[in-house]
Design brief:
globular; 16 strands; homotetramer; Chorismate synthase (chains A, B, C, D); 5-stranded antiparallel sheet; Chorismate_synth (chains A, B, C, D); Chorismate_synth_AroC_sf (chains A, B, C, D); Chorismate_synthase_CS (chains A, B, C, D); Chorismate synthase, AroC fold
Chain lengths: ~350, ~350, ~350, ~350
């Protein structure tokens, strides 16, 4: 049962390999009557795409999305929205050296073992290129969500962390620098670190924090489809993600109940919010905030020893165009996945009225 | 779309409230021909059940599971396995005080908001009692998995951590103490802390680490149903969970690619295993290890100020029988969820042969 | 992927074999706040159960349904509703003769081939006993549907047909005779035929017609989950069903467009209704009517030649208690399945508001 | 929950309106390693497409399918197969007259009611144009099924029926005439009738019979996903279908058990096959044969009185290019849907090994 669909009522199914003809997807279940702002969708695409700045991969893709159905006279019809994004800047020859070899910590080895063959060019389906389709769907979901505010940002690169609670950050600063960190001083340090890492031909990890505000109360479907469980699955499905925590997260594991409980105000809001906006798996109206951990990208420009299909040792030289740090480009992907989850659960909640 | 089912091909659907007549479930898709070891299933149940030791809740439930179908002459038939576990030791009067009040950091408030009403007794469906059904299904999944080794243990309570890598631990020690920590010295400290916390009428959080060994290569369904994404969702659906990380986890976010990459041995195994046994969302044959963070249980014996349905301030006194620390009882639940995920993905993988 | 669940948002999962401990199911997704009329549910059960009259099987089951969860103080909570129905009147020794033999036109052979083993007693999971669970869920769905009228009746037994359009029938007569035919004169002929067939130790087929009135406009999800496609699947999943047609059905295949088209009245209703209340797979507010064909039950009291597991010829004598004609007992099952489909699609439609 | 996906393990999701930019789909779950015969796929497309002969619609579409992913060096990779088919011969002005009016027995009215708006051109999503995507997927499924023989043919047009059992027909004759009837004499009568109907500006219905041979034993998932139930849903989802019957069908409802039962041969095959190759919802190795009823297409060239959006009477003149009888073009669609069901259930059955 291949896993290329996400969502229940607002469902995205995607296709496409890094160096194939095109990537794209179908959104099934988008409600009718939404006037789509196509520029806003393209803007989200542009946030994600490669070749934007000096600290990300130099592959240049226009990443223009073309809608093929489901929109009539600018308004969604309730019928499935099919879309494609052409691949144009593939340099497949960059990958001929891995045709028979397995790059360490990549999916090359397991794809061969699972499927018996693979499109090796650019990592094929395992490449993060497929996340472009997620951003298209997430952008449409955002337009469905209207009042909900979704803001993600880079909260750490390597061992450089933002040292303030998110409430003290100005989200309007997120897009003001290449690393998408709303704290300008920390952003500079992050950028310097990434440039350093790039010179070394290495890569580095980081974390993305995401804050969802004005989320309606009542989203979430216990006991297995709790809101934070679905958010966690959504984030963990993004390339290079190694961890997810929400609210007090792993720190909460060190606390006592008397310290951790969020007491109520008279209007149902809570005085503190260590819960992270979700209790019993259902949103309670408070801010939902979570953090996603990204490992350093596996493709480095340094030499590595590895093996090939026949079990022989080979030396691999990193080639192709790569990201020293994926975290800035992951920010819009995290937002897109959050929007998809919220849109889906919002539709589910309509059945309770 | 209510979320009371887990899995695709090996699917568990559960029902039951804490103080209802019974809890139970249906397992659909268990392959035929498996000779069920009923004692082993009951043994897993006994690991989870309340009233076992001085450091957990004193509610005593026999937690005997009764199978109603799907097993003929001791062997699974491939037809759905229905089972029930009777609730016997409900002290519903213990909960009359919360009939109209909302316990802080519990699901009381959101259930009322979402559904318009709730079975308040013992937390109703939001109570961790429903996890007993998961353990039944997980126990059956374990028997399907045969060679796979699944071991979970308490890795921290509050700020008391095991300070060794899991490879240096003896898993046969896990059941040797009430806190299910395989390091005896650390276990003692944990137990002392929990007893202290209990005297204070408070609760404390902790983490569970789980190690899966001998997992076949190739399990996982990119791009959305990656193995670790499904494991993450499974764990996050357990009561009180606030975080999930696998392999290098959040630490990996601080590392460089040259430090993080797992180089190959000639036979396809890797020299290091920061990947945590999963690459590109697919198992690669190495140990899969992950950590789950549990917040302190919200029910404390100290007084708390809260509100009731009419938005009035009320004072709440903790009553009922509760856990000062859920982590030891969560250990078999973590194993059960891991077994369910692996069983499901193992069945999916048969379609590739 | 075992197929024991039906529905998407209003979902029923069932379990249970004919001679197992019990049968039952879980209804997930029933909206909260419905005051359940338990007597009405039991009344539907009584319509289906065996041992009711001289023209059906003599197996006597009380068929009392016991609810285990999901209902609090008589009102649905929105949490899953688990229920069991105990099997009490199994005469398993009646089936010892088929332990190793395959009854012609039964599922014995294919179950052994598919699963490798089977619970042979009473046909195990393949027995129509499992339909009792469907009737429980259908009864609850009916209570959710309020204004929709669902009426099914026996429209033919063998070559004895009702010769009037349904509009000329009095549905209040359906329960007035054992064969559930609203035309008293035809009903008598049907009963006589069935008694005759019973004396011969034979069985006979028939058809059930079902009429759904006051169905809201807009139910149905093109292009694959069209309303009539889901109704068709629902009916075809009932034991012994060999055909489904709605509206003009197979007769419509002989007609011309100028004869078949339903012209509009000013208010959107249609002058004729050969469409059968569904156009483009979506309900249009007119009566939905369909017909379901039942083959004669395979268990006959006459001797038959057959084979056993080892491929040897054996002679089989029909034993056990059986129905000469299942059609009267199928009437409430047809209604139950129709109610499940409508409840599900009604919930889905709420997402469009 | 929009219904634009079909299948579980071999899953097709489609998009596209009659006069939109393009139609297409994604096939998720096609096993890796299948060498795709692209010409065979295009040949199936050509069987379905409009403008082929004098007895079908004169709209000319090249219906060339373009694959965008999931195939590498001619072999399926196990990753999702995305494909598009461009719409080129839309004459949208032909439909301006129905912009605000509702064609009788079409989906115009219900789409407006359900979604609040619709793409009126050519019927939008409700047009049979979307079936082209089904044929692509069905063609790929056929290649996965290898030894299974799938043959569908026109068995009746109006009141002209083939009067032989299918065993006496030569399937190699199906493609020898425009009406796809393997009996040449009957075919001529059918063609004459259709030409007559066309002159009258009218339309006529008919039936398609389909025979599946060499189907492996054991396909089907009781109790709700029985093989014939899924086949029924598949066929009923095709435009204009009003009925489905398999094996003895509605005739079986008139028979007695002693007449209807299929006795076994020693090798497990049956002497007769009124069951139609499926018992208890599971294939038994015998031929599966079923019949699908198509009503006459609703668009006729004669004038019809109807209403518009504002509830006013208007007169409608049939325009556009239409089919006097869809049945010949439905033949490859019926085969495609049968192939999709078998491919899906074949994959499901692998989990039992």
């Amino acid at each position: 049962m291949a896993g290329n669909s996400f969502g229940n009522l607002f469902k995205l199914t995607t296709f496409g390999e890094s160096h194939g003809v095109a990537i794209g997807g179908i959104i099934d279940g988008c409600p009718p009557g939404i006037e789509l702002d196509l520029e806003a969708i393209q803007a989200e695409m542009n946030r994600r795409k490669p070749g934007q700045s000096a600290i990300v991969t130099q592959r240049k893709e226009p990443d223009e999305v073309k809608f093929l159905s489901g929109v009539f006279e600018g308004v969604t019809t309730g019928t499935p929205i099919g879309f494609v994004i052409e691949n144009s800047n593939q340099k497949s020859h960059d990958y001929s050296h891995i045709k028979d070899s397995y790059r360490p910590s990549h999916a090359d080895y397991v794809y061969d073992k699972k499927y018996g063959l693979r499109d090796y060019r650019g990592g094929g389906r395992s490449s993060a290129r497929e996340t472009a389709s997620r951003v298209v769907a997430g952008a449409i979901a955002k337009q469905m969500l209207k009042n909900v505010k979704i803001n993600a940002f880079t909260s750490s690169v390597g061992d450089i962390f933002i040292d303030k609670p998110y409430q003290d950050l100005d989200f309007s600063n997120i897009e003001s620098n290449d690393v998408r960190c709303p704290d300008s001083a920390i952003a500079e340090k992050m950028i310097d670190r990434i440039k350093q890492i790039r010179k070394e031909g290495d890569t580095i990890g980081g974390t993305v924090t995401c804050v969802l505000q004005n989320v309606p109360i009542g989203l979430g479907e216990p006991v297995f489809d709790k809101l934070h469980a679905e958010l966690g699955k959504a984030m963990l499905s993004i390339n290079a993600v190694k961890g997810f925590e929400y609210g007090s997260g792993f720190c909460g594991a060190k606390m006592k109940g008397s310290e951790h409980n969020d007491l109520f105000n008279i209007d149902g809001s809570t005085k503190t919010n260590l819960s992270g906006g979700i209790q019993g798996g259902i949103s309670n109206g408070m801010d939902i905030y979570f953090r996603v951990a990204f490992k350093p990208v596996a493709t480095i420009m340094q030499n590595q020893e590895t093996i090939n299909k026949d079990g022989e040792k080979v030396e691999m030289h990193g080639k192709g165009r790569h990201d020293p740090c994926v975290v800035p480009r992951a920010v819009p992907i995290v937002e897109a996945m959050a929007a998809l989850v919220l849109a889906d659960y919002l539709l589910i909640n309509k059945t309770y009225s």
